[in-house]
Specification:
- The structure is a single chain.
- Helix content is 32%, strand content 14%.
- A seven-stranded parallel β-sheet has the order 8-7-6-9-10-11-12, sandwiched between helices. The chain has a five-stranded parallel β-sheet with strand order 2-1-3-4-5, with helices on both faces.
- The protein is of the alpha/beta class.
- Helix 1 crosses helix 11.
- The N and C termini lie far apart (55 Å).
- It has two domains: 109 residues, Rossmann fold; 159 residues, NAD(P)-binding Rossmann-like Domain (Rossmann fold, 3-Layer(aba) Sandwich), CATH 3.40.50.
- The chain has eleven helices and twelve strands.
Length: 313
Protein backbone atom coordinates (compact mmCIF):
# COMPACT_ATOMS: atom_id res chain seq x y z
CA UNK A 1 0.00 0.00 0.00
CA UNK A 2 1.21 3.51 -0.82
CA UNK A 3 1.49 6.05 1.97
CA UNK A 4 0.69 9.52 0.64
CA UNK A 5 2.13 12.59 2.35
CA UNK A 6 1.48 16.26 1.58
CA UNK A 7 3.99 18.98 2.42
CA UNK A 8 2.51 22.36 1.50
CA UNK A 9 1.31 25.60 2.99
CA UNK A 10 -2.25 25.64 4.31
CA UNK A 11 -3.21 28.34 1.78
CA UNK A 12 -1.76 26.70 -1.36
CA UNK A 13 -4.83 26.41 -3.67
CA UNK A 14 -3.30 23.62 -5.76
CA UNK A 15 -2.40 21.59 -2.66
CA UNK A 16 -5.92 22.08 -1.30
CA UNK A 17 -7.45 20.80 -4.55
CA UNK A 18 -5.05 17.84 -4.67
CA UNK A 19 -5.70 16.91 -1.04
CA UNK A 20 -9.46 17.09 -1.51
CA UNK A 21 -9.45 14.90 -4.62
CA UNK A 22 -7.08 12.27 -3.23
CA UNK A 23 -8.98 12.05 0.08
CA UNK A 24 -12.04 10.79 -1.80
CA UNK A 25 -10.31 7.47 -2.44
CA UNK A 26 -7.10 7.24 -0.39
CA UNK A 27 -5.76 8.38 2.98
CA UNK A 28 -3.45 11.40 2.74
CA UNK A 29 -1.45 12.88 5.61
CA UNK A 30 -0.20 16.46 5.86
CA UNK A 31 3.30 16.87 7.27
CA UNK A 32 5.49 19.88 8.10
CA UNK A 33 9.04 20.63 6.97
CA UNK A 34 10.38 19.61 10.39
CA UNK A 35 8.88 16.14 9.89
CA UNK A 36 11.02 15.35 6.85
CA UNK A 37 14.22 14.50 8.70
CA UNK A 38 12.61 11.91 10.96
CA UNK A 39 10.09 10.48 8.50
CA UNK A 40 10.68 7.00 7.17
CA UNK A 41 9.69 6.96 3.50
CA UNK A 42 9.40 3.61 1.75
CA UNK A 43 10.02 2.77 -1.90
CA UNK A 44 6.29 2.82 -2.57
CA UNK A 45 5.51 6.02 -0.68
CA UNK A 46 4.47 9.29 -2.29
CA UNK A 47 5.35 12.82 -1.20
CA UNK A 48 3.37 15.68 -2.74
CA UNK A 49 5.38 18.86 -2.45
CA UNK A 50 3.72 22.27 -2.64
CA UNK A 51 5.19 25.43 -4.07
CA UNK A 52 6.52 28.38 -2.05
CA UNK A 53 7.97 26.40 0.84
CA UNK A 54 9.42 28.39 3.77
CA UNK A 55 13.13 28.99 4.33
CA UNK A 56 13.20 26.17 6.87
CA UNK A 57 12.60 23.68 4.06
CA UNK A 58 15.66 21.54 3.28
CA UNK A 59 15.56 19.74 -0.06
CA UNK A 60 18.38 17.44 1.10
CA UNK A 61 15.92 15.86 3.55
CA UNK A 62 13.51 14.82 0.81
CA UNK A 63 12.95 11.06 0.38
CA UNK A 64 15.66 9.02 -1.30
CA UNK A 65 13.10 6.77 -2.95
CA UNK A 66 9.46 6.62 -3.90
CA UNK A 67 7.62 9.33 -5.82
CA UNK A 68 7.97 13.07 -5.25
CA UNK A 69 5.27 15.08 -7.03
CA UNK A 70 6.05 18.80 -7.16
CA UNK A 71 3.04 21.11 -7.51
CA UNK A 72 4.78 24.33 -8.57
CA UNK A 73 5.58 25.75 -12.00
CA UNK A 74 9.31 26.18 -11.37
CA UNK A 75 11.28 23.49 -9.52
CA UNK A 76 14.20 24.83 -7.53
CA UNK A 77 17.79 23.91 -8.28
CA UNK A 78 17.79 21.95 -5.00
CA UNK A 79 14.84 19.88 -6.12
CA UNK A 80 16.49 19.20 -9.46
CA UNK A 81 19.63 18.12 -7.61
CA UNK A 82 17.52 15.68 -5.61
CA UNK A 83 16.10 14.31 -8.86
CA UNK A 84 19.63 13.69 -10.11
CA UNK A 85 21.19 12.32 -6.95
CA UNK A 86 18.59 10.00 -5.45
CA UNK A 87 16.55 7.00 -6.47
CA UNK A 88 13.31 8.89 -5.99
CA UNK A 89 11.20 9.62 -9.06
CA UNK A 90 10.70 13.39 -9.07
CA UNK A 91 7.96 14.77 -11.29
CA UNK A 92 6.50 18.20 -12.02
CA UNK A 93 3.28 19.53 -13.51
CA UNK A 94 4.51 20.64 -16.95
CA UNK A 95 2.28 18.20 -18.91
CA UNK A 96 -0.74 19.65 -17.11
CA UNK A 97 0.03 23.37 -17.48
CA UNK A 98 1.93 23.45 -20.80
CA UNK A 99 -1.08 24.77 -22.76
CA UNK A 100 -1.56 27.55 -20.20
CA UNK A 101 2.09 28.56 -20.41
CA UNK A 102 1.93 28.55 -24.21
CA UNK A 103 -1.16 30.75 -24.13
CA UNK A 104 0.67 33.19 -21.85
CA UNK A 105 3.64 33.28 -24.22
CA UNK A 106 1.37 34.02 -27.17
CA UNK A 107 -0.47 36.59 -25.07
CA UNK A 108 2.75 38.50 -24.45
CA UNK A 109 3.18 39.16 -28.16
CA UNK A 110 0.21 41.54 -28.21
CA UNK A 111 1.56 44.09 -25.71
CA UNK A 112 5.00 43.69 -27.28
CA UNK A 113 3.50 44.72 -30.65
CA UNK A 114 4.94 41.71 -32.44
CA UNK A 115 3.76 41.06 -35.99
CA UNK A 116 1.29 38.13 -36.19
CA UNK A 117 3.46 36.02 -38.51
CA UNK A 118 7.02 36.02 -37.21
CA UNK A 119 10.17 33.93 -36.94
CA UNK A 120 10.24 32.28 -33.51
CA UNK A 121 13.28 30.91 -31.75
CA UNK A 122 12.31 28.50 -28.97
CA UNK A 123 14.93 27.33 -26.52
CA UNK A 124 13.95 24.12 -24.75
CA UNK A 125 11.78 21.44 -26.34
CA UNK A 126 10.16 19.90 -23.30
CA UNK A 127 6.42 19.82 -22.68
CA UNK A 128 6.09 23.61 -22.65
CA UNK A 129 8.45 24.36 -25.53
CA UNK A 130 6.71 21.76 -27.68
CA UNK A 131 3.32 23.30 -26.94
CA UNK A 132 4.62 26.78 -27.83
CA UNK A 133 5.98 25.50 -31.15
CA UNK A 134 2.65 23.86 -31.98
CA UNK A 135 0.71 27.06 -31.31
CA UNK A 136 2.99 29.44 -33.21
CA UNK A 137 3.34 27.20 -36.27
CA UNK A 138 -0.45 26.75 -36.36
CA UNK A 139 -0.55 30.52 -36.89
CA UNK A 140 1.76 30.22 -39.95
CA UNK A 141 4.80 31.46 -38.05
CA UNK A 142 8.14 29.71 -38.51
CA UNK A 143 9.92 28.21 -35.51
CA UNK A 144 13.46 27.01 -34.93
CA UNK A 145 14.56 25.33 -31.72
CA UNK A 146 17.69 25.01 -29.63
CA UNK A 147 17.83 22.08 -27.23
CA UNK A 148 20.60 20.63 -25.09
CA UNK A 149 19.16 17.15 -25.34
CA UNK A 150 18.80 15.29 -28.60
CA UNK A 151 15.05 15.34 -29.36
CA UNK A 152 13.33 11.99 -29.71
CA UNK A 153 13.42 10.52 -33.18
CA UNK A 154 10.87 12.08 -35.49
CA UNK A 155 9.82 14.93 -33.19
CA UNK A 156 11.35 17.74 -35.26
CA UNK A 157 9.70 16.37 -38.40
CA UNK A 158 6.35 16.11 -36.62
CA UNK A 159 6.62 19.74 -35.49
CA UNK A 160 8.05 20.99 -38.77
CA UNK A 161 10.97 22.77 -37.11
CA UNK A 162 14.75 22.92 -37.51
CA UNK A 163 17.31 22.67 -34.73
CA UNK A 164 20.04 25.29 -34.40
CA UNK A 165 22.68 26.38 -31.94
CA UNK A 166 21.64 29.07 -29.47
CA UNK A 167 23.77 31.67 -31.27
CA UNK A 168 22.07 31.08 -34.61
CA UNK A 169 18.66 30.95 -32.97
CA UNK A 170 18.92 34.31 -31.20
CA UNK A 171 20.46 36.05 -34.20
CA UNK A 172 17.71 35.01 -36.62
CA UNK A 173 14.51 35.18 -34.58
CA UNK A 174 11.95 37.96 -34.25
CA UNK A 175 10.80 36.39 -30.98
CA UNK A 176 13.02 34.36 -28.64
CA UNK A 177 11.09 32.29 -26.07
CA UNK A 178 12.95 30.48 -23.27
CA UNK A 179 11.65 27.25 -21.70
CA UNK A 180 14.36 25.61 -19.59
CA UNK A 181 14.91 24.71 -15.95
CA UNK A 182 17.31 26.70 -13.82
CA UNK A 183 20.66 24.96 -13.50
CA UNK A 184 24.35 24.92 -14.45
CA UNK A 185 23.73 25.06 -18.22
CA UNK A 186 21.49 28.10 -17.83
CA UNK A 187 22.95 30.31 -15.11
CA UNK A 188 22.43 32.53 -16.97
CA UNK A 189 21.76 31.27 -20.48
CA UNK A 190 21.25 34.71 -22.07
CA UNK A 191 23.83 37.38 -21.25
CA UNK A 192 24.93 40.67 -22.82
CA UNK A 193 26.72 38.66 -25.49
CA UNK A 194 23.61 36.74 -26.63
CA UNK A 195 21.40 39.84 -26.44
CA UNK A 196 23.92 41.59 -28.68
CA UNK A 197 23.34 38.91 -31.32
CA UNK A 198 19.59 39.60 -31.46
CA UNK A 199 17.98 41.89 -34.01
CA UNK A 200 17.21 45.39 -32.68
CA UNK A 201 13.57 44.70 -33.59
CA UNK A 202 13.47 41.34 -31.77
CA UNK A 203 11.87 40.61 -28.40
CA UNK A 204 12.62 38.10 -25.65
CA UNK A 205 10.00 36.15 -23.67
CA UNK A 206 10.98 34.32 -20.49
CA UNK A 207 8.57 32.07 -18.57
CA UNK A 208 11.33 29.89 -17.09
CA UNK A 209 13.20 31.63 -14.26
CA UNK A 210 14.87 34.97 -13.64
CA UNK A 211 18.14 33.04 -13.17
CA UNK A 212 18.31 31.91 -16.82
CA UNK A 213 18.81 35.49 -18.04
CA UNK A 214 21.13 38.32 -17.03
CA UNK A 215 18.50 40.81 -15.93
CA UNK A 216 20.89 43.75 -15.68
CA UNK A 217 21.95 43.10 -19.29
CA UNK A 218 18.30 42.94 -20.36
CA UNK A 219 17.45 46.27 -18.73
CA UNK A 220 20.50 47.83 -20.38
CA UNK A 221 19.59 46.31 -23.76
CA UNK A 222 16.06 47.70 -23.55
CA UNK A 223 17.34 51.14 -22.61
CA UNK A 224 19.90 51.23 -25.43
CA UNK A 225 17.62 49.75 -28.07
CA UNK A 226 19.73 46.61 -28.49
CA UNK A 227 16.46 44.63 -28.29
CA UNK A 228 12.90 45.88 -28.72
CA UNK A 229 11.18 44.23 -25.79
CA UNK A 230 11.19 41.79 -22.89
CA UNK A 231 8.20 39.99 -21.35
CA UNK A 232 8.28 37.72 -18.31
CA UNK A 233 6.13 36.18 -15.60
CA UNK A 234 9.15 35.39 -13.42
CA UNK A 235 10.78 38.78 -12.80
CA UNK A 236 13.75 39.14 -10.49
CA UNK A 237 14.74 42.14 -8.42
CA UNK A 238 16.53 43.98 -11.23
CA UNK A 239 13.61 43.82 -13.65
CA UNK A 240 11.14 44.83 -10.94
CA UNK A 241 13.37 47.79 -10.12
CA UNK A 242 13.82 48.87 -13.76
CA UNK A 243 13.04 52.43 -14.76
CA UNK A 244 9.30 52.98 -15.12
CA UNK A 245 9.83 54.48 -18.56
CA UNK A 246 10.54 50.99 -19.95
CA UNK A 247 7.11 49.81 -18.81
CA UNK A 248 5.36 52.96 -20.00
CA UNK A 249 6.98 52.65 -23.42
CA UNK A 250 5.80 49.04 -23.75
CA UNK A 251 9.32 47.65 -23.96
CA UNK A 252 9.05 45.82 -20.62
CA UNK A 253 6.01 43.62 -19.91
CA UNK A 254 5.80 41.95 -16.50
CA UNK A 255 3.12 39.86 -14.83
CA UNK A 256 3.37 38.21 -11.43
CA UNK A 257 0.06 36.36 -11.67
CA UNK A 258 0.80 32.67 -11.19
CA UNK A 259 -0.63 30.34 -13.80
CA UNK A 260 -1.71 27.98 -11.02
CA UNK A 261 -4.06 30.72 -9.78
CA UNK A 262 -6.02 30.76 -13.04
CA UNK A 263 -9.63 29.58 -12.98
CA UNK A 264 -9.77 25.80 -13.12
CA UNK A 265 -5.99 25.33 -12.91
CA UNK A 266 -5.93 23.81 -9.42
CA UNK A 267 -8.59 21.25 -10.28
CA UNK A 268 -6.87 20.39 -13.56
CA UNK A 269 -3.55 19.86 -11.80
CA UNK A 270 -5.22 17.77 -9.09
CA UNK A 271 -6.61 15.34 -11.70
CA UNK A 272 -3.15 15.09 -13.27
CA UNK A 273 -1.54 14.37 -9.88
CA UNK A 274 -4.07 11.63 -9.10
CA UNK A 275 -3.36 10.06 -12.50
CA UNK A 276 0.37 10.12 -11.73
CA UNK A 277 -0.18 8.52 -8.32
CA UNK A 278 -2.26 5.78 -9.92
CA UNK A 279 0.40 5.15 -12.56
CA UNK A 280 3.16 4.98 -9.94
CA UNK A 281 1.10 2.61 -7.78
CA UNK A 282 0.47 0.21 -10.67
CA UNK A 283 4.00 0.36 -12.06
CA UNK A 284 3.06 2.37 -15.13
CA UNK A 285 4.96 5.38 -16.49
CA UNK A 286 4.45 8.65 -14.63
CA UNK A 287 4.32 11.94 -16.51
CA UNK A 288 6.44 15.07 -16.08
CA UNK A 289 9.65 13.51 -14.80
CA UNK A 290 12.20 16.19 -13.92
CA UNK A 291 15.52 15.57 -15.60
CA UNK A 292 18.73 17.46 -15.06
CA UNK A 293 20.26 18.41 -18.39
CA UNK A 294 24.01 17.94 -18.64
CA UNK A 295 26.50 19.34 -21.13
CA UNK A 296 26.12 18.11 -24.72
CA UNK A 297 28.78 15.87 -26.20
CA UNK A 298 30.97 16.43 -29.25
CA UNK A 299 28.91 15.80 -32.36
CA UNK A 300 25.74 17.27 -30.85
CA UNK A 301 24.84 20.55 -32.65
CA UNK A 302 24.36 22.26 -29.29
CA UNK A 303 28.00 21.55 -28.32
CA UNK A 304 29.18 24.70 -30.06
CA UNK A 305 26.46 27.05 -28.89
CA UNK A 306 27.10 29.72 -26.29
CA UNK A 307 27.04 29.02 -22.56
CA UNK A 308 28.08 25.45 -23.16
CA UNK A 309 31.44 23.76 -23.17
CA UNK A 310 33.44 25.11 -24.88
CA UNK A 311 31.92 28.58 -25.22
CA UNK A 312 32.53 30.40 -28.49
CA UNK A 313 33.22 34.15 -28.08
Amino acid sequence: MNNIFLLASESDPVAIAVESLIAKSSPIRRIASVDLKDSQFGDNDILILGDGMPDTFNANELPESGLIQFLGCRPSKELLDRAENSSAIVVGISPSIAPRVANRVIGFTGPLSVKPVADWGVFGLGEVGTEVVKKVTANRSVATIAELRTPRSGLLTELGVRRQSLDLLVSGADIVSVHVHAGPTAAPLLTERELGLMKPSAVLINTSSDSVVDESAIVAALSSGTIAGYATDCPGEQVLAADESLTVSGKLIVTTNSLTNQIGAAQQIAKYVVANITAFSTGDTVQGKLEVIGFPTIGDPSFWSSKMSPRQD
